[in-house]
Specification:
heterodimer, A: 4-stranded antiparallel β-sheet, B: about 400 residues, alpha+beta, about 25% strand
């Protein structure tokens, strides 16, 4: 059988980096990031977060093939920012948003268990 | 006299303008501060931005407008920052039982809601039976089918107390394996019996089957399929309630007279991406909050007709005096968007508008029983946070 191992989908192989960064050769402040062993779960929210940034001119992601377990995120920013900066900013914001979301959920849970 | 008055007021006005200009700094800010210049989106655009409109043939305006400069021509800033997010975000718990919960998440993007759904289904770990050692199986159900059925049984054990097995699967200790034994036999002359999950017995000391190993010397203890250093129920981190099967009345097999099943099942930690048996939820889903708007007053016979059209009872009728009646929207949340109410011609489409609120998600989680649903959700948030951190850390 030539089926790939099931853990291939989420275990980053040794010797490969989780994230690689390639600058665009033709456009300044544009780049493509490759994230290994991730899918729409991360790709779509990073894209969403990048779109909220006023310095981002273009942001998109793609899953090149269902059996290639990686996503490509392409970012093009204005000259005030850089793709790397926008990406870091987006993920940091996302992290803080999730933290807020978790606290809000736990507060609501506590309130619920107190009330009923 | 009146002329003098006019000129006076003009001078005053100019002074007023000058003062305002100084207050507001540059001229552009001044213009923006004028009341006649809108600071918000016009109502129609606001509607298109925040609602999905469900027309009789298809929903329209389904996209979420995220681009920060989408309304730049109207001088409306569409960018969203953390403090706006924190202000607008709200969670409301609707229902919580042992196995399922429903809550509203208000003020998030579909991308985030979908990420939670995906993580709940395929990335929150649980324990499930992965290896089955069959000593004897004379029942009509084949070994493979039996193993598959065993794999799908939900196990009541907190996966956070266990480790993932190593990829080779050779080292099986008390930290990564739960062992269950099943030994049932239908005696000759007895009626057929049904084997249910309550027959599965947890073995906290590990496997009892001896592995075939010809090279071992005779003095040592016979080797089994696991190498437990101590009993699992003696470990302090394991809770008071013993590990077991969530539901005791799931049918595993049926045995005729003289048939027997003897086996040992080893459960390990895993995630739903590998196999659906590790999925901690029966299902997790979300829907957007329905909004039903009556565009014109629906009265008397038409109100009655509208009320009878809706199969889930969204509409109600109220008396407005003088024997007149009027339709009202009583339970919009129950609306399933079957669009039965706007069927029957253009005139109904003009009366009723079916919408969904784009940033209001009704999230439902049905747990299979390994973890209570509220803990599943916090686990999912933690997993997403971990992902974010990993994705950024490995870059720098």
């Amino acid at each position: 059988m030539n089926a790939p191992d099931r853990y291939e989908r989420f275990v980053v192989p040794e010797g490969t980096k989780k994230v690689t960064y390639v600058r665009d050769t033709k456009i300044i402040s544009a780049a493509c990031l490759t994230v290994e062993r991730e899918d729409h779960t991360i790709g779509n929210i990073v894209r969403m977060q990048l779109h909220r940034d006023p310095n981002v001119l273009f942001a998109g992601y793609k899953l090149p093939h269902p059996l290639q377990y990686k996503i490509l995120i392409r970012i093009h920013t204005t000259s005030q920012s850089s793709p790397m900066q926008a990406y870091n900013q987006a993920i940091n914001d996302l992290d803080r948003e999730l933290d807020h979301l978790k606290n809000a959920f736990e507060a609501e849970m506590a309130k619920f268990s107190r009330d009923y | 006299m009146s002329e003098v008055d006019d000129s006076m007021s003009e001078v005053e006005e100019q002074e007023e303008l000058q003062r305002k200009k100084e207050e507001n700094g540059s001229g552009l800010d001044y213009i923006l501060s004028l009341e006649s210049v809108p600071s918000k989106l016009p109502p129609r655009l606001e509607e298109l931005k925040t609602r999905v409109f469900c027309k009789s043939d298809a929903p329209v305006h389904t996209d979420t407008i995220q681009y920060s400069g989408a309304y730049a021509a109207l001088r409306v800033d569409n960018s969203l920052r953390l403090d706006n997010f924190c202000q607008n975000f709200k969670i409301e718990l609707i229902r919580l039982t042992d196995d399922d919960m429903e809550f509203d998440m208000i003020g998030i993007d579909p991308a985030l809601a979908n990420a939670f759904r995906r993580i709940l289904i395929s990335e929150v770990p649980t324990m499930a039976i992965e290896r089955v050692y069959i000593a004897n199986n004379t029942s009509v159900i084949q070994d493979e089918v039996l193993s598959h059925r065993l794999g799908l049984i939900p196990i009541r054990a907190d996966p956070r107390l266990f480790e993932y097995p190593d990829t080779t699967g050779t080292d099986k200790n008390e930290k990564n394996t739960i062992v269950f034994k099943l030994h049932v036999r239908c005696e000759v002359g007895q009626p057929r019996i049904t084997v249910k999950t309550r027959e599965l017995e947890w073995l906290p000391h590990g496997s009892e089957l001896h592995s075939e190993d010809n090279n071992r010397d005779a003095s040592s203890k016979p080797r089994t399929f696991t190498s437990f250093n101590c009993s699992q129920d003696s470990l302090p981190e394991f809770p008071k309630s013993p590990i077991g099967i969530k539901d005791s009345d799931i049918i595993i097999a049926k045995l005729g007279p003289g048939q027997e099943i003897e086996l040992e099942a080893h459960a390990v930690k895993g995630i739903g991406k590998t196999h659906a048996k590790w999925s901690p939820v029966a299902t997790a889903w979300y829907r957007m909050l329905p909004e039903v708007v009556l565009l014109e007053e629906v009265k008397d016979e038409l109100a009655e007709e509208l009320k009878n059209k809706c199969p889930v009872g969204v509409f109600d009728i109220e008396d407005i005096g003088k024997g007149k009646r009027r339709a009202t929207v009583a339970r919009p949340r129950a609306c399933t968007l079957c669009r039965e109410c706007i069927r029957g011609g253009k005139e109904w489409e003009d009366r009723v508008s079916l919408r969904r609120v784009k940033d209001h998600f009704i999230f439902t989680i049905e747990s299979t029983g390994a973890l209570p649903p509220e803990e599943l959700f916090t686990e999912a948030v933690k997993i997403l946070e971990d992902k974010c951190e990993r994705v950024i850390m490995e870059l720098s």
